[in-house]
């Protein structure tokens, strides 16, 4: 009998902890509803995974944080003692998750307090991916994955050793691949390889368990769900981004200073990202739309506020591969600091077609919430009336 896929509650992305802490401290009674969304039809029906997924969820909900894991979280300066005390009592409640099928379609819905519901996302996506790819796993697939990984390392090493890195603008690469990984042990191998062979460029991983095990820096701040929740938390809709950013500032007081820009698009974000926020936050994260155009807008915005963009960080995290990382680095080096969070291209590049699944917040406190992405395919299917209203409020064209 196979062991469970998830064996530690640290086996998730850092931003789940940082968002959960902010939720616990600022809106602990909020209720969230999440849905699994498949953006592209998979090669094989996901519905056949239902029974195995149910069993994995049962195992997940039996996990607790160990004393050593809690001690590690306490060592992170931005994690507060009362939050770790809460986690000492924490376990995921199985009753908040419902799995069903509709023909070949796998359906999964989560509904419950956000301090519970939001913590399921990365675990669920990692489980579905690993269950799906078990059918393909084998020595030949792993060998192809290692060949591809070696090629990536060689590309990056040649760029670094060939003088491609400008003084004062380091090439910074992180693993953001937990949600899309081929398997847990494969992500471990990839991250350990990069840390060993590219120590001057590889800055860490979003996966807290891997960071702890390998002595790396855990990377992450906020995700879309944190910003989206403020669409339903009693502030004027036009002010939800500013309310979310202000809450983050009050919670972290200068730590974790990278703001996510594409909940209602970059243009609408920059309208709210005034001098106050531009000085308080260390930089911005790109997750949809043309990354070159996005970076140009960010730099122009900082310059319009008389802030030198060379002291700010532009974090790119949307569908990156090695070539795109190097192209973006070359383009912006000398103009701004850059960092690259690479997901599927690291954790699930073994010659197979990756899944394109997400688990997104659809309602908060009984009200619809939405994301108006700069990439049309990433705009979530939600209540069309609310979507139209959101577009109107932020002057985002359909």
Q: What general form does the structure show? A: globular
Helix/strand structural class: alpha/beta
N- to C-terminal separation? 51 Å
Fraction of residues in β-strands:
5-15%
Q: Indicate the radius of gyration in whole angstroms.
A: 20 Å
Provide mean pLDDT, rounded: 96
What would your notes on this structure say?
By secondary structure, the protein is an alpha/beta fold. It folds into 2 domains: 14-135 and 354-394, nicotinate phosphoribosyltransferase, CATH 3.20.140.10; 140-347, Alpha-Beta Barrel (nicotinate phosphoribosyltransferase). Helices cover 43% and strands 14% of the residues. The chain is built from 17 helices and 11 strands. It has helices at 14-26, 50-60, 67-74, 81-88, 114-117, 121-133, 139-161, 184-197, 208-214, 224-229, 240-252, 266-272, 275-280, 291-304, 322-332, 344-347, 384-394; strands at 31-38, 97-102, 105-113, 173-175, 202-205, 258-260, 283-286, 313-316, 337-342, 357-364, 367-368. Strands 5-4-9-8-7-6 form a 6-stranded parallel β-sheet. It has a 5-stranded antiparallel β-sheet with strand order 2-3-1-10-11. Helix 2 (50-60) crosses helix 6, helix 3 (67-74) runs antiparallel to helix 4 (81-88) and helix 7 (139-161) packs parallel to helix 8. The relative contact order is 0.15. This is Nicotinate phosphoribosyltransferase. Belongs to the NAPRTase family. Keywords: Glycosyltransferase, Ligase, Phosphoprotein, Pyridine nucleotide biosynthesis, Transferase.
